[in-house]
Amino acid sequence: MERSEEAGLRHGMRQSLRDWFDERVGLDIFERMLQKPLPKRGAWFYTLGSATLSLITIQFVTGAFLMFYYVPDGEYAEQSIRYITEQVSYGWYLRSMHRWSANLLFVVIGLHMFRVFVSGSFKRPREMTWVIGALIFLTVIGIGLTGGLLPWDDNAHWIGTVFGNTLSYFPLVGPFLRSALLGGEHVGTLTLTRFYALHVWVLPLVLGILITLHLYLIRKHGLFGSVIEYRDQIAALKAKGVPRESIIVTKMTPDETEPFYPAQVFRDSIVAFGLITAVSLFSILFPFSPYRGEEPPPTEIIPRPEWFFWSVDEWLMFFPGRLIPIGLILVTLFFLFLPLIPFVERHPEVSPIRRPVPTIIGTWVYLFIIVLALMAGARILNY
Ligand code: HEM
């Protein structure tokens, strides 16, 4: 058969396979998704959302593997973790991947939030994209918190006890929250099964639904990007004498766009590949199971929260004794305030320079959280 005839035959087979699927599942929706135009100038900044998604995917895959062996029972949980680490082929590696990826997830999600906040991407009509995003953030915190108990070692018992005690400081509902979550007055098997259920299916299910909604809204409104995507149109309007204050950037389409496929898919893949490599390297160089096959030296068992809770831990230190409820209520108000940001900062201006108050407050909040975490780190690690 001639080369051209062969190529034609292959093309024909591909086309009929495509048509077969198109008729049954409707491929046009995927094709439209791939062709969706995206703003071009700040493209690398727009990889942070998909980077978050990549890390969550690593969590789901490695978490499913851990579930094959983990036993959520007060008597066997710690043993099953040791079994995964010491006996199962590459168990130590996949467990370390799960933990390193969780650590990185908090960093990347924080960067993604910062980028969408500073660029004013949450403004009308994208308020609900932010609200859903903030709920995602709270769910991720919940997953991180509940996961800390599952190793069921001394540190896990300590985390459960401290968390339960902290909850009980809430006025009125505190004692109820504490016993509902702990499954009684003290940390026990019921605490473990509750945290396990929350960690492996309740919160991941909520997360899956929220991420689907988040992506749907991004698809619906198109990516806003940031003010740099609109500077030609802004300059043209200004040249015509339109005052800058009356230019509503969120109503415009970007000056320059490109389809999602192939350029952005390529960038997202590079970032995803970089993250998988980083998580993998960290897991090999600094595995979370340094005592494979041996008993850990007793001095090493120092109760400490995961670093992503250090800032809250340090914050509560400012409120000793009877003041704890105040510190706790302030933290809760902060978390409840997050989804409300688009309804508080409603002015259509998106440029970070032209809205200095939110930009400065937002940056200070980030710096404050980092400083609190560093202070807690210095205290906890005894530097
Ligand atoms: C699992 C966590 C998350 C995933 C997988 C995710 C995914 C994404 C993706 C893929 C995009 C489009 C690309 C980009 O702008 O980076 C995006 C945009 C956006 N995200 Fe997220 N996101 C998450 C968390 C959050 C959080 C915590 C917030 C804020 C509280 C948030 C608010 C937004 C907003 C407002 C946009 C629109 C940006 C624009 O139109 O320019 N997201 N997200």
Automatic annotation (TrEMBL):
Residues 250-383 form the Cytochrome b/b6 C-terminal region profile domain. PROSITE patterns: CYTB_CTER, CYTB_NTER. Pfam families: Cytochrome_B. GO terms for biological process: respiratory electron transport chain. Residues 17-227 form the Cytochrome b/b6 N-terminal region profile domain. The chain crosses the membrane at residues 43-70, 100-118, 130-152, 196-218, 270-288, 323-344, 356-381. It is a multi-pass membrane protein. One of its GO terms (molecular function) is oxidoreductase activity. It is found in: Membrane. Keywords: Electron transport, Heme, Iron, Membrane, Metal-binding, Respiratory chain, Transmembrane, Transmembrane helix, Transport. One of its GO terms (cellular component) is membrane. This is Cytochrome bc complex cytochrome b subunit. It comes from Candidatus Manganitrophus noduliformans.
